[in-house]
Amino acid sequence: MMRPTSKNPCKLPPATVIEGKWHGQKYILLKELGEGANGVVYLTRYGNQKAALKISNDGFTITSEVNVLKSFAKARGTALGPSLLDVDDWKSPEGLVSFYVMEFIEGPGFDEFIAGKGAEWVEVLFLQLLTDLDLLHQNGWVFGDLKPENLIIAGPPSRIRCVDVGGTTMAGRAIKEYTEFFDRGYWGMGSRKAEPSYDLFAASMVFISTAYPNRFNKSEGGMKQLQGAIRLKRQLVKYEPVLVKALKGDYLTAKEMREDFLKIGRGAQEGKGEKFNQIKPHTGTNPSQPLQSRQQIRAKTRMVSPNVHHKHGGGKETILIVSAMAILYIVYVVVQLI
Fold first, then answer.
1. Which range has the worst mean pLDDT, 38-47, 58-67, 96-105, 299-308?
2. Are 62 and 54 in contact (CB under 8 A)?
3. What is the pLDDT of residue 279?
4. SS3 category, 153
5. Which domains does the chain have, with CATH numbers?
6. 145 flagged as catalytic
7. What does the alpha-carbon distance between residue 41 and residue 156 come to, in Å, rounded to a whole number?
8. What average pLDDT score do residues 140-168 get?
9. At what angle do helices 196-209 and 254-277 cross, to 10 degrees?
10. How many other C-beta atoms lie within 10 A of the C-beta of residue 185?
């Protein structure tokens, strides 16, 4: 067994073998995936499978996050978080520490996926995200630290998933973890109380960030700056009513926000259809002209047509007569000469 690289029992080198005290499952650490304030996440192998293992010397953190993952499992239809595989303790050289093992979700990050597939995917993924957030909220949890870095697109079929539930907080409590750009408290737009509106503010900022890959710095903050940022980007302006409402905290549920988002999308499609339907094929007559008037025109056309053909026939007869007279005249001249 490898010893930790520091006094922190959670910082471990590759090839460390972690054996669960209660379940006896062995995990070989392959590499570190990420480190947070409450623990470290590793890519691990057990048998022929890969998984993600989070270890922490804070038992409360492990218990809380395990409860979140269990809640995800109870929310039928949601794929927001990873599946929980195991929960146990490890007797490390520094003492007993807790860990849990979860599904290892492979795929590009949110920003990377959009950059590769195109901006048209933003709306699809955003609708998926709102669906999953609604189910999470119904189960009494708020995601908290919602940002592109915590979102991965698995598949096929392409599906938005979360890789870090460390910021997920029970509704009604104070948000545990947040990132300033996506935090409404940072922008002076509300408290850090764990409630659906907190997540919906962050979701709106995720949507806005797709038009600002390098994001933007806070100046005066508040709605004035955020709404100004929306109006500077054509791909955001269409959804301004929904984004502004979410930024203000006026949505009670993610479902409401999703329905408004869909209405705008459908409205844009219907608008294109109406515009197309206004283009009438050319028929040679005025479509707004009364039917009787159009029928009279057709009748007049049928009456005029025979006369037109008659004129063409009379022209041919005239040419024949002139030609015959010319021939007779030439014959007469020749006879006189003889």
1. 299-308
2. yes
3. 29
4. strand
5. 17-103 (3.30.200.20), 110-268 (1.10.510.10)
6. yes
7. 25
8. 92
9. 40
10. 15
Residue 194, both tokens? 């764990």
Residue indicated by tokens 């502004």: 244
Instruction: Please provide the average confidence, as pLDDT, over all residues in the chain.
Output: 82
User: pLDDT per residue over 277-304, tens digit each?
Assistant: 332 333 333 333 333 444 443 443 333 3
CA distance 235 to 170: 34
CA R_g for the chain:
38
Looking at 156-253, list the stretches that DSSP marks H as alpha helix, in order from N- to C-terminal side: 196-209, 222-231, 234-237, 240-247
Q: Among 71-80, 159-168, 303-312, which stretch is predicted with the lowest mean pLDDT?
A: 303-312
Between the CA of residue 268 and those of 74, 197, 235, 237, 259, what are the distances in Å? 36, 26, 13, 12, 14
Return the residue matching tokens 């009379």.
314
Instruction: Determine the Cα–Cα distance for residues 172 and 260; give it in Å rounded to an integer.
Output: 26
Distances (CA, A) of 24 to 27, 55, 87, 91, 218: 10, 16, 11, 12, 50
Amino acid identity at 32: E
pTM of this prediction? Answer: 0.73
What is the arithmetic mean of pLDDT over 17-31? 97
Of 88, 132, 134, 145, catalytic: 145
Q: What is the pLDDT of residues 104-115, one digit of tens each?
A: 999 999 999 999
pLDDT attached to residue 9: 74
SS (H, E, C) 97-144: EEEEEEECCCCCEHHHHHHHHCCHHHHHHHHHHHHHHHHHHHCCEECC
How high is the pLDDT of residue 320? 52
Tokens standing for residue 56 = 């922490």
How far are the Cα atoms of 150, 184, 241, 260, 288 from residue 228, in angstroms, in the given order? 26, 16, 13, 21, 45
Tell me what pLDDT residue 162 has.
Answer: 84
- Encoded amino acid at 324, one letter: A
Contact 188, 227 (CB under 8 A): no
